[in-house]
Amino acid sequence: HYRPFWDKGVQVDIVDMDGDISKYKLVIAPMLYMYRAGFEKKMRKFVENGGTLVTTYWSGIVDDTDLCKMGGLPGDMMDVFGVWNEEIDSLPDGMKNGIAFNGSRYDAMELCARIHPLTAEVLGTYEKDFYAGEAALTKNKFGKGEAYYIAARTGSDMLSVLYGEMIETLHIEKALDCALPHGVTAHIRHGEKENIIFVENYTESGKTVELPRDYKLYGTDQTVNSIKLAPFGIALLSDLTKV
After folding, report:
1. How many other CB atoms sit within 10 Å of the CB of residue 208?
2. Is 154 within 8 Å of 99 (Cβ atoms)?
3. pLDDT, tens digit (0-9, with 9 covering 90-100), for 129-159
4. pTM of the model
């Protein structure tokens, strides 16, 4: 779930259930097996106030004393996500199901929850086995916000498409508003007089990044709209527009 944002140069915070999530546009809580006391209310308020929340299978199983939730999963968040998780199919090693989503097919593996939409819109469905055609990915409107439920473990390919749409729809800031080559990421460090963008190549081959506009190379007067990165190379750009 982190990798699609890394690939697109979107910075994320890692917070725990005691943290403040109210300031974010998007909160992703995969496999949140235990709901600590009060966190359900925090998630509920976040979505009600206009936030976008994503969770997955194997979430809301127990409370903070490790006692199983009664009355269905994901616990008291069923109305927020708009689904009821009836059971989980555990796939043997090497066995895969498929999810049809957004006109493409993606692998589902290891754990596949059988969920029943209550108020949620079905975005993706399972392709085979006794639960073929059932919901595998849903979106539910709740208050001013939306809550997504991913019912199975998937590869980063499907998550990249799903989160890519959210980045655009929610206008989540990228370090560089352009497509980054495979293995290249970008991050911003904020300063008092200028922001510095670190563009990093984590591959064994050289990469070229076509920038969305002109930037200055940090520490110089040189203006560039394209940069070439050596294998495992890095470039620093000055950005005065976001100070």
Report:
1. 11
2. yes
3. 999 999 999 999 999 999 999 999 999 999 9
4. 0.93
Length of the chain in residues, anyone?
Answer: 243
Question: Sheet harboring 184-190: ordered strands across?
Answer: 184-190, 195-201, 234-239, 207-217, 223-229
H or E stretch covering 7: helix 3-7
By the 10 Å C-beta count (0-12 exposed, 13-18 middle, 19+ buried), 94 is classed as exposed
Digit-coded pLDDT (tens) for 1-38: 999 999 999 999 999 999 999 999 999 999 999 999 89
Residue type, 232: F
CA 62 to CA 178: how far, in whole Å?
42
| Cβ-based burial of 168 (10 A; exposed 0-12, middle 13-18, buried ≥19) | exposed
How many alpha carbons fall within 13 Å on the CB side of residue 108? 31
CA nearest to 230, candidates 188, 183, 169: 183
The answer to whether residues 101 and 71 touch, using CB atoms and an 8 Å cutoff, is no
